[in-house]
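Next comes one such specimen:
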Amino acid sequence: MKMKPLTLILTVVFQLVSLTAFSQKTAGLNSLLNKNSEFIFPQTPEKMAAALKTKTDFYEDANDEKYAKWMTKSGLELYCSLGKNNAINEMFFDIPDNRSLVIEGLPFGLALNKTTLQEAKTKFSSNGAKTQPLGEDSEFSGGSKLTFKKGERYVTLLFDSKSLLKSVGITQELIDPAAN
């Protein structure tokens, strides 16, 4: 049986569209965000695990500092340092292994691998957003870092060389790059 060219073209187009549509996922953070789409602090590992429907992985760094991370079904990884009584007062969001998933529903209405540097500059210009190039030794060399203050927290957005959002960090103070 011979397939007509129009049928073949429509079949290929449908498959491409469905691949793109199904690669976009929602972070599932609704219960962790306030009405302004801002992450609610402080949190606890137990609340995070329940909201994300996943287990908490606890670990320590070389300085015996305690950390926790969560890997969601959507492919989003959240991680943070743990304060006194395991209080969570900062949070980082990224997609491990540099996979090209689009994850929507992040704080401030952001989407990993979708929000562009220009969109973020425009959105956060009223917060005094500042852009810096990322160095060659950075995970996203040739990319950019956008930082701004939102309320009592600092937000750091990392973009790759294609100007796509790769990482979101929400902290109580700006992190000195020399500390890492």
Observations:
- The longest strand covers residues 144-150.
- DSSP finds three helices and ten strands in the chain.
